[in-house]
User: What shape does this take?
Amino acid sequence: MVLSVSVVLCAFNRKNDVTECLESILKQNYSNFDVWVVDDASTDGTYEFLKKKFGDNKKFHIIRNDTEMGNTRSRNMVMRESKGEILVSTDDDCIVHQNWIANLVKVFEESPQIGLVTGKVLPIFYKKVPLWLEPPIYPILAIRTENKRSEALNPYGCNMAVLRSVMEKINFLNEDITRKYGGLYSGEDTDLGLRVRAAGYKVVYTPAAVVDHKMFPERLSKEHFIRRALYFGLSEKVYAGSNMWKLLDGTANIIIFLFKFIAKSKFSTLTLIAYKTGFMIGALGGDEGVLERWREWFMRLAQKTK
Assistant: This one.
Protein backbone atom coordinates (compact mmCIF):
# COMPACT_ATOMS: atom_id res chain seq x y z
CA MET A 1 0.00 0.00 0.00
CA VAL A 2 1.37 3.41 -1.00
CA LEU A 3 1.18 5.83 1.93
CA SER A 4 -0.53 9.14 1.20
CA VAL A 5 1.54 12.30 1.60
CA SER A 6 0.58 15.95 1.99
CA VAL A 7 3.36 18.47 1.35
CA VAL A 8 2.83 21.75 3.20
CA LEU A 9 4.58 25.10 2.92
CA CYS A 10 4.03 28.72 3.86
CA ALA A 11 4.61 31.46 1.27
CA PHE A 12 5.23 35.13 1.90
CA ASN A 13 6.17 37.66 -0.79
CA ARG A 14 8.32 35.24 -2.78
CA LYS A 15 6.13 34.72 -5.82
CA ASN A 16 8.88 33.56 -8.17
CA ASP A 17 10.71 31.44 -5.61
CA VAL A 18 7.62 29.60 -4.39
CA THR A 19 6.65 28.95 -8.03
CA GLU A 20 10.01 27.27 -8.62
CA CYS A 21 9.57 25.30 -5.40
CA LEU A 22 6.10 24.09 -6.41
CA GLU A 23 7.26 23.10 -9.88
CA SER A 24 9.90 20.85 -8.31
CA ILE A 25 7.37 19.31 -5.90
CA LEU A 26 4.83 18.57 -8.63
CA LYS A 27 7.52 16.70 -10.60
CA GLN A 28 8.03 14.11 -7.85
CA ASN A 29 8.34 10.47 -8.86
CA TYR A 30 6.05 9.48 -5.96
CA SER A 31 2.44 8.90 -6.96
CA ASN A 32 0.22 9.41 -3.91
CA PHE A 33 0.72 13.00 -2.78
CA ASP A 34 -0.79 16.45 -2.84
CA VAL A 35 0.58 19.88 -1.91
CA TRP A 36 -0.91 22.55 0.34
CA VAL A 37 0.24 26.16 0.30
CA VAL A 38 -0.80 28.87 2.71
CA ASP A 39 -0.15 32.39 1.47
CA ASP A 40 0.51 34.37 4.65
CA ALA A 41 -1.05 37.67 3.52
CA SER A 42 1.53 38.37 0.81
CA THR A 43 1.44 41.82 -0.81
CA ASP A 44 3.10 40.86 -4.11
CA GLY A 45 0.20 38.97 -5.68
CA THR A 46 1.51 35.54 -4.70
CA TYR A 47 -1.94 34.04 -4.06
CA GLU A 48 -3.48 35.18 -7.33
CA PHE A 49 -0.42 34.15 -9.33
CA LEU A 50 -0.24 30.64 -7.83
CA LYS A 51 -4.00 30.16 -8.15
CA LYS A 52 -3.82 30.98 -11.85
CA LYS A 53 -0.70 28.91 -12.56
CA PHE A 54 -1.46 25.76 -10.55
CA GLY A 55 -5.18 25.98 -9.84
CA ASP A 56 -6.12 23.33 -12.44
CA ASN A 57 -3.74 20.77 -10.93
CA LYS A 58 -5.73 18.35 -8.75
CA LYS A 59 -2.74 17.87 -6.46
CA PHE A 60 -2.58 21.58 -5.65
CA HIS A 61 -4.43 23.38 -2.84
CA ILE A 62 -3.96 26.95 -1.64
CA ILE A 63 -5.30 28.97 1.27
CA ARG A 64 -4.77 32.68 1.93
CA ASN A 65 -4.51 34.40 5.30
CA ASP A 66 -6.15 37.84 5.39
CA THR A 67 -3.62 38.95 8.00
CA GLU A 68 -0.12 37.63 8.64
CA MET A 69 -0.23 34.68 11.05
CA GLY A 70 3.39 33.60 10.92
CA ASN A 71 5.05 30.47 9.65
CA THR A 72 4.19 28.08 12.49
CA ARG A 73 0.48 28.86 12.82
CA SER A 74 0.11 28.78 9.04
CA ARG A 75 1.76 25.36 8.76
CA ASN A 76 -0.42 23.97 11.53
CA MET A 77 -3.52 25.24 9.76
CA VAL A 78 -2.77 23.49 6.47
CA MET A 79 -1.50 20.36 8.20
CA ARG A 80 -4.86 20.00 9.92
CA GLU A 81 -6.72 20.78 6.69
CA SER A 82 -4.77 18.25 4.59
CA LYS A 83 -5.45 14.50 4.57
CA GLY A 84 -2.07 12.78 4.03
CA GLU A 85 -0.91 10.01 6.34
CA ILE A 86 2.53 11.64 6.22
CA LEU A 87 2.97 15.42 6.53
CA VAL A 88 6.00 16.72 4.65
CA SER A 89 7.24 20.30 4.90
CA THR A 90 9.59 22.54 2.98
CA ASP A 91 10.07 26.30 2.53
CA ASP A 92 9.20 28.68 -0.28
CA ASP A 93 12.90 29.31 -0.99
CA CYS A 94 13.74 25.63 -1.58
CA ILE A 95 13.91 23.35 -4.62
CA VAL A 96 13.34 19.66 -3.91
CA HIS A 97 14.99 16.76 -5.72
CA GLN A 98 12.77 14.50 -7.81
CA ASN A 99 12.95 11.51 -5.45
CA TRP A 100 12.57 13.64 -2.31
CA ILE A 101 9.18 12.35 -1.16
CA ALA A 102 9.95 8.74 -2.11
CA ASN A 103 13.15 8.73 -0.06
CA LEU A 104 11.44 10.24 2.98
CA VAL A 105 8.59 7.72 2.85
CA LYS A 106 11.02 4.82 2.40
CA VAL A 107 12.41 5.43 5.89
CA PHE A 108 8.96 5.32 7.53
CA GLU A 109 8.32 1.93 5.93
CA GLU A 110 11.19 0.42 7.94
CA SER A 111 9.53 0.64 11.37
CA PRO A 112 6.36 1.98 13.07
CA GLN A 113 8.65 3.48 15.71
CA ILE A 114 9.95 6.09 13.26
CA GLY A 115 7.88 9.22 13.80
CA LEU A 116 9.88 11.90 11.99
CA VAL A 117 12.32 11.87 9.07
CA THR A 118 14.54 14.77 8.01
CA GLY A 119 16.99 15.08 5.14
CA LYS A 120 19.93 16.83 3.56
CA VAL A 121 19.81 20.58 2.83
CA LEU A 122 22.31 21.83 0.25
CA PRO A 123 22.95 25.55 -0.29
CA ILE A 124 22.46 27.49 -3.51
CA PHE A 125 24.81 30.48 -3.27
CA TYR A 126 24.36 33.67 -5.29
CA LYS A 127 27.61 35.34 -4.27
CA LYS A 128 31.11 34.31 -3.26
CA VAL A 129 31.02 32.35 -0.03
CA PRO A 130 32.87 34.20 2.76
CA LEU A 131 35.79 32.39 4.35
CA TRP A 132 34.20 32.74 7.79
CA LEU A 133 31.24 30.52 6.83
CA GLU A 134 32.30 27.25 8.47
CA PRO A 135 30.40 24.05 9.41
CA PRO A 136 29.86 24.97 13.11
CA ILE A 137 27.56 27.83 12.02
CA TYR A 138 25.83 26.09 9.09
CA PRO A 139 22.63 25.77 11.20
CA ILE A 140 22.19 29.55 10.97
CA LEU A 141 21.37 29.03 7.28
CA ALA A 142 19.71 25.62 7.74
CA ILE A 143 22.48 23.90 5.79
CA ARG A 144 22.86 20.16 6.40
CA THR A 145 25.50 18.23 4.48
CA GLU A 146 26.09 15.07 6.55
CA ASN A 147 26.45 11.98 4.37
CA LYS A 148 25.72 9.34 7.01
CA ARG A 149 22.33 8.35 8.35
CA SER A 150 21.75 9.39 11.97
CA GLU A 151 19.18 9.34 14.77
CA ALA A 152 20.90 12.11 16.72
CA LEU A 153 20.34 15.19 14.52
CA ASN A 154 17.59 17.76 14.98
CA PRO A 155 15.13 18.16 12.09
CA TYR A 156 15.04 21.16 9.77
CA GLY A 157 11.58 22.42 8.82
CA CYS A 158 12.59 22.97 5.19
CA ASN A 159 13.12 19.20 4.79
CA MET A 160 11.01 17.25 7.24
CA ALA A 161 8.31 14.57 7.28
CA VAL A 162 6.14 13.50 10.22
CA LEU A 163 3.47 10.85 10.61
CA ARG A 164 0.06 12.51 10.94
CA SER A 165 -0.79 10.21 13.86
CA VAL A 166 2.31 11.44 15.68
CA MET A 167 1.53 15.09 14.93
CA GLU A 168 -1.97 14.64 16.31
CA LYS A 169 -0.61 12.90 19.41
CA ILE A 170 1.77 15.77 20.25
CA ASN A 171 -0.61 18.54 19.07
CA PHE A 172 1.34 19.73 16.01
CA LEU A 173 3.94 22.53 15.99
CA ASN A 174 4.49 24.79 18.99
CA GLU A 175 2.76 28.06 18.10
CA ASP A 176 4.65 29.92 20.82
CA ILE A 177 7.60 29.77 18.40
CA THR A 178 6.72 31.45 15.13
CA ARG A 179 8.40 33.69 12.60
CA LYS A 180 6.66 36.65 11.04
CA TYR A 181 8.07 39.04 8.47
CA GLY A 182 11.04 40.81 9.99
CA GLY A 183 11.15 38.52 13.03
CA LEU A 184 13.82 35.92 13.65
CA TYR A 185 12.31 33.59 16.23
CA SER A 186 12.89 29.98 15.19
CA GLY A 187 13.34 26.48 16.53
CA GLU A 188 9.83 25.08 16.12
CA ASP A 189 11.43 22.23 14.15
CA THR A 190 13.95 21.48 16.93
CA ASP A 191 11.15 21.63 19.47
CA LEU A 192 9.11 19.21 17.34
CA GLY A 193 11.97 16.73 17.22
CA LEU A 194 12.32 16.85 21.01
CA ARG A 195 8.60 16.22 21.50
CA VAL A 196 8.52 13.38 18.94
CA ARG A 197 11.35 11.64 20.78
CA ALA A 198 9.66 12.28 24.15
CA ALA A 199 6.52 10.58 22.79
CA GLY A 200 8.57 7.42 22.19
CA TYR A 201 9.34 7.72 18.47
CA LYS A 202 12.60 7.87 16.55
CA VAL A 203 13.79 10.90 14.60
CA VAL A 204 15.85 9.78 11.61
CA TYR A 205 18.10 11.79 9.30
CA THR A 206 18.56 10.38 5.81
CA PRO A 207 21.01 11.95 3.34
CA ALA A 208 19.01 10.43 0.46
CA ALA A 209 16.17 12.98 0.79
CA VAL A 210 17.60 16.23 -0.58
CA VAL A 211 16.43 19.82 -0.99
CA ASP A 212 18.39 22.79 -2.30
CA HIS A 213 18.05 25.91 -0.16
CA LYS A 214 18.53 29.36 -1.68
CA MET A 215 21.07 31.49 0.14
CA PHE A 216 20.13 35.02 -0.86
CA PRO A 217 23.05 37.50 -0.76
CA GLU A 218 21.70 39.39 2.26
CA ARG A 219 21.97 36.20 4.31
CA LEU A 220 25.74 36.03 3.86
CA SER A 221 26.53 38.95 6.12
CA LYS A 222 27.97 39.03 9.62
CA GLU A 223 25.04 41.19 10.69
CA HIS A 224 22.56 38.50 9.66
CA PHE A 225 24.50 35.74 11.40
CA ILE A 226 24.85 37.59 14.69
CA ARG A 227 21.15 38.49 14.81
CA ARG A 228 20.09 34.96 13.87
CA ALA A 229 22.42 33.43 16.46
CA LEU A 230 21.08 35.67 19.24
CA TYR A 231 17.47 34.88 18.29
CA PHE A 232 18.27 31.16 18.02
CA GLY A 233 19.34 31.30 21.64
CA LEU A 234 16.36 33.39 22.71
CA SER A 235 14.05 30.91 20.94
CA GLU A 236 15.72 27.95 22.66
CA LYS A 237 14.65 29.30 26.01
CA VAL A 238 11.02 29.30 24.76
CA TYR A 239 10.96 25.60 23.84
CA ALA A 240 13.62 24.16 26.15
CA GLY A 241 12.93 26.21 29.26
CA SER A 242 15.59 27.04 31.81
CA ASN A 243 16.75 25.74 35.15
CA MET A 244 19.89 26.01 37.22
CA TRP A 245 21.67 23.26 35.26
CA LYS A 246 20.91 24.92 31.92
CA LEU A 247 22.07 28.27 33.24
CA LEU A 248 25.33 26.73 34.40
CA ASP A 249 25.73 24.91 31.10
CA GLY A 250 25.08 28.11 29.14
CA THR A 251 27.60 30.02 31.24
CA ALA A 252 30.21 27.29 30.86
CA ASN A 253 29.77 27.22 27.07
CA ILE A 254 30.16 31.00 26.84
CA ILE A 255 33.39 30.82 28.88
CA ILE A 256 34.77 27.97 26.73
CA PHE A 257 33.93 29.73 23.46
CA LEU A 258 35.28 33.02 24.84
CA PHE A 259 38.68 31.47 25.57
CA LYS A 260 38.72 30.01 22.05
CA PHE A 261 37.85 33.43 20.64
CA ILE A 262 40.61 35.15 22.64
CA ALA A 263 43.10 32.58 21.33
CA LYS A 264 41.91 33.02 17.75
CA SER A 265 39.35 35.67 16.82
CA LYS A 266 37.24 33.61 14.41
CA PHE A 267 33.79 34.82 13.43
CA SER A 268 32.32 31.31 13.72
CA THR A 269 33.35 31.19 17.39
CA LEU A 270 31.86 34.63 18.03
CA THR A 271 28.60 33.45 16.47
CA LEU A 272 28.47 30.52 18.88
CA ILE A 273 29.01 32.91 21.80
CA ALA A 274 26.12 35.03 20.50
CA TYR A 275 23.90 31.95 20.34
CA LYS A 276 24.56 31.02 23.97
CA THR A 277 24.22 34.68 25.00
CA GLY A 278 20.77 34.79 23.41
CA PHE A 279 19.72 31.82 25.49
CA MET A 280 21.06 33.40 28.68
CA ILE A 281 19.23 36.67 27.91
CA GLY A 282 15.95 34.78 27.66
CA ALA A 283 16.66 32.54 30.64
CA LEU A 284 17.40 35.56 32.84
CA GLY A 285 14.21 37.36 31.81
CA GLY A 286 15.61 39.68 29.16
CA ASP A 287 13.65 40.75 26.11
CA GLU A 288 14.34 41.75 22.50
CA GLY A 289 15.46 45.21 23.61
CA VAL A 290 18.24 43.67 25.70
CA LEU A 291 19.11 41.36 22.83
CA GLU A 292 19.46 44.29 20.40
CA ARG A 293 21.88 46.06 22.73
CA TRP A 294 24.01 42.91 22.85
CA ARG A 295 23.79 42.67 19.07
CA GLU A 296 25.52 46.06 18.75
CA TRP A 297 28.33 44.86 21.03
CA PHE A 298 28.78 41.64 19.06
CA MET A 299 28.84 43.53 15.77
CA ARG A 300 31.70 45.71 16.98
CA LEU A 301 33.69 42.55 17.70
CA ALA A 302 32.56 40.92 14.46
CA GLN A 303 34.22 43.60 12.34
CA LYS A 304 37.59 42.52 13.72
CA THR A 305 37.16 38.81 12.98
CA LYS A 306 38.03 36.57 10.05
User: Anything to note?
Assistant: The two ends are 54 Å apart (CA to CA). The longest strand covers residues 202-215. DSSP finds ten helices and eight strands in the chain. Strands lie at 5-11, 33-39, 60-64, 86-89, 94-96, 114-125, 160-163, 202-215.
